[in-house]
C-alpha cells in the first residue's frame, strides 16, 4: 500500500520550486526591454485518482510509478506565439538545475486527437531531510490557443470518458484547425503586436512614475 501523502511530498515540492523558477524567467524577460516569451506559468501535482487511472491504462505497476510515470509533477508555460515556444525551449536547455531526459514535439507532429504542445521530461533534484531525491517532472510549453483547445478537449474527455460522439469529435477537429490557424495569423502580425505591447507597458510605467 502506498502512503500517498508521503509519496507525493517531493512532487509537491518540485512543482512549487519549478513554478517559482519558471515565473522568475518571465520576470527577468520583463525587466529587460524584451517582449516576454512567457505569458504565464501554472503547475499541479497529478491527483491520486488520475495517477491510478493512468497506471491502469498504461500497465504501470504501482511500485514503478517513480521511474515510469513522467508527469506526476507537471508545470505548464503559456506563450503568445509559436516562435516564443522555441525561445523558451532554448532557455530551458541551458539551465543547470535539472537534466532533460526527453523532449516530445507535438507541435511539428500533432497527436491524432489534434493536441499540440511541446513537452520536456526532466529529472529534477529535490532536497529532502533524507538527502537528495531525483524525481521526473514534465514541462509543457504551448501557445494560448493550444492551451485553450487542450483545456476544452480535456474537460470533454473527462465528460465522455474518451468516447466522443461523432458530432463533438468533428467539432473538436475543426476547433483544433481553427486554433492552428489563429497561431499562424498571430505569428504574421507578431511584430505589430509586440510593438503595441511595449508601447502599452511604457505608458503604464510613465503613469506609475507620476
Ligand atoms: P492530465 O490530467 O493533464 O494529467 P501518450 O502515451 O504519448 O499519449 P504520455 O506518455 O502519458 O502519453 O505522455 P505525453 O504524451 O507527454 O502526455 C502527457 C500529458 O500531455 C497528458 O496528461 C495531458 O496533460 C497532455 N496531453 C497529451 N495528449 C493530450 C490530448 O490529446 N489532449 C489533451 N487535452 N491533453 C493531452 P494526462 O495524464 O493525459 O492528463
Automatic annotation (TrEMBL):
Keywords: ATP-binding, GTP-binding, Kinase, Nucleotide-binding, Transferase. Pathway: Purine metabolism; ppGpp biosynthesis; ppGpp from GTP: step 1/2. It is an enzyme of class 2 (transferase). The keyword GTP-binding applies. Homotetramer. It comes from the Bacteria. PANTHER family: GTP PYROPHOSPHOKINASE YJBM. InterPro entries: GTP_Pyrophosphokinase, NT_sf, RelA_SpoT. Residues 43-164 form the RelA/SpoT domain. This is GTP diphosphokinase. One of its GO terms (molecular function) is GTP binding. SMART domains: RelA_SpoT. Belongs to the RelA/SpoT family. GO terms for biological process: guanosine tetraphosphate biosynthetic process. Its EC number is 2.7.6.5.
